[in-house]
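Holo prediction. Input below; ligand is zinc ion.
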Amino acid sequence: MTDTSLLSNSDAERMKTLRRDIHAHPELAFEEKRTSDLVARTLEAAGIEVHRGIADTGLVGVLRNGDGPSIGLRADMDALPILEAGGADHKSTHDGVMHACGHDGHTAMLLGAAEALAASRAFKGNVYFIFQPAEENKGGGRVMVEEGLFERFPCDAIFALHNWPGLAAGKIAVQPGPMMASFDTFDIVLKGVGGHAAMPEKARDPLVAASEFVLALQTIVSRKLSAHDPAVLSVTQMKGGETFNVIPGQCEVKGTWRCFDPEVRTFIRDEIDRILASVCAAHQIDYDAEYEFGYPSTINTETEALFAADVAKGVVGEGNVDTSFRPSMASEDFSVMLENVPGAYIWLGAGIEATPLHHPAYDFNDDTLETGRDLLVSLVTRFSETR
Ligand SMILES: [Zn+2]
Ligand SMILES: [Zn+2]
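Structure of the complex:
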């Protein structure tokens, strides 16, 4: 069992102050300059070696304590382009930008854990505190990996926490296998031949073809995939035409698909393409199609997920750890780190009634800071005992 009694209330107050300071000064993806400076200063003040400029604003704090395993802990630092609602004292001072996903809290908890471990040195080996930029949409985690994160800081395992509204505060959820879905997109243009609306026989109507295409896409999840392979496909944009009496020359169709299994991921892409080719052939029209594989699914490795669950039981008690939590269809770019190093992504309960993530009235639940920090600290101390 980890002794977290060294951690005092003043540490908790300090984390809260840091969290609220970051909340008041949110920064978008790859623009986290102030946040990155604050993190670097805080780590350096704790005597932790800091390596900056990885994926621009990303940084890694390194704490060594003799021979032993190497563990990586990741926090994300970026905010979202949302105008904050509500009147908290620490409300965003940057109009149209806010911490609506709790990355302010994740950063403060990891700083709290870094300070606690630097003071206690209750571990053996190396701890890499990974502060990544641009988790939202822009894949800062991938950029860090591409810039040599794990060559420079080789980790035996990596872990990340994310707060989760809907899970009670004081509870933790982690399990082997999928935690979040992959996120991929399609951008398609159906290219017909425009003409007079009164004489469709002289045109090749891309709108009718696009309509058939959109309906046919709905059969991929419902008719082509097993009910045991969760997936969702949404068409989110259709654009074509300008007026009443003209058949337009083309129609754009855009959307996204999400799933857990990498094979399902490519199967869906292939099915979209097959249906598109068939529909366009039937209507004698051309098309351009672009498919972009975005974030992979977030899949916890078994050993590390079970280890994290066991550590969590030591922090919040056996009855407060859920190891069969329903995975989310949202996505997360810690997944790219998990493609390179074994590890686990862990949900930290934010409260059953907490405001959902990405909502303008969301605010990180400060009452969960200590639980998150204690879990991070315990992951490090227990990990060094296992090797
Ligand atoms: Zn988010
Ligand atoms: Zn997030």
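The first strand starts at residue 49 and ends at 54. That is the main takeaway for now.
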